[in-house]
TrEMBL record:
The organism of origin for this protein: Methanosarcina barkeri MS
Region of interest (Disordered), ranges: 339-362, 438-466
Keyword DNA repair belongs to the record: no
Segments crossing the lipid bilayer: 416-433
PANTHER family on file: NPCBM-ASSOCIATED, NEW3 DOMAIN OF ALPHA-GALACTOSIDASE (PTHR35902:SF3), S-LAYER DOMAIN-LIKE PROTEIN-RELATED (PTHR35902)
Keyword list, A-Z: Membrane, Transmembrane, Transmembrane helix
Lineage: superkingdom: Archaea
Skewed-composition ranges (Basic and acidic residues): 439-457
Keyword Transferase: no
This protein's name: NPCBM-associated, NEW3 domain of alpha-galactosidase
Amino acid sequence: MKKFSLLKIILMFSVFIYLGAGTALASNGNIKSASLEVNLAKQNPDAARPGEPVELTVNVQNVGNANLKDIAVTVNPEYPFSKVSGEELTKKVSYLTARQDDDDAAVLKFKLMTDANASEGTYDIDITTTAKESGSSLNTIATTKTIQLEVKGKEYAQIVTINKASIDLAQKEPLEFIITNTGNSPLKNMVVSWKDPKGVILPVYSDNTKYIKYLAAGDSVTVSYSVMADVNADPGLYTLDVNLKFEDYESNEKSIATTAGLFVGGKTDFDVSFSESDQGEVSLSVANVGNNMAYSVKVSVPDQDGYRVSGSSSTIVGNLEKGDYTIASFNIVSTQSPGVAESGGTPGVARASEKDKNVTSMGSNPLEVQIEYTDAKGERVTVNKEVELETTAGSVNAQGRGRSGSASNSSRFSSYLTYIVLIVVAVAGLFIYRRKKQVEREKESGNKKSEDQKHDSGTGSGTIRD
């Protein structure tokens, strides 16, 4: 029992001696240990932005009891970060003393590129460090530190499309801007406005400002206006200055200025009506009833059922100002009604062939007229119009304002008779007027002779009394 107790005491004493010796050696630096700490000191900017570089400031500190040499610090970027051209991903420190304070730490800077399509969020990046203990080429230490980088979406908006490229003069027309958030972060409190510096194009029913409270990344919104161009404006391309204002994620106001083009002017319209008919020639009045000038106007009568054109079917009438008109004449034969005049009919009446007689009908179709012109944009435009006509055998009249065949002869005879009657009446009136004047002169002459005779008679009586 005594032997066991003595052995136990000896063993315990030996342990205490060993521990004390180890502590003393360690305090004298005879037991060496190495340790490195790597920390992200700063990120510039505080949140990485898509498509922009980000700079990392890294502190490397030796907190162990052994001096270190040949320290290498490597940043291992992963999506959405990548190496910047000309920038190194590994930085070296030649020597770090043991037990460093924070102020003694090595400061290293790295620069990375953020992908342009990076989504908002937090991403991990590994930083690997290797070093050797001073005085020993075999004892190498390695550490890996994972840091987190924040990415904030990029706010950007653009006008993708405008719903039209041109508007007419003095016409209320819709104008729509399609605005898309092409960034990676939502836009808030967005204000959209536009202005024509020349004042030709103006909004109606509202002002030129629209508000959008929220627009998520990748979403689009349509902003609608009703606009009108000055009726007296010169046709041409006008500039719209468009301004977009919005707030970013930090509630800072940003603005984007851009321009768009809008053509004012373009097409016009025409009114075609019957003017007159003479000896088979039909004259049509063509008026520019639109708000734009028409250039190089050509009027044509196309092939159609019920009518046949003798001679040229087209005529160029030149330019037509808005509100102006011109006359276009064609030799037109109707093939719609029976009783076509024979070839030996009255001169001045349009005739139809035997073949035409077989296809005539009692119906009356409108005459199709085609108008071609160049608009203010330089584009060739075709407009089709119809003129209501009344037809008889082989000739054309409009709205009963003309006759053909015997009806035309009767009308012409009636006109001649009217002229003859008017002439006879005029001659008779002149004769009666002159006769009346002659009678009045004769009466005046007779009255004068009577007075003279009375005077002469009075004079003779006096002489006899003497």
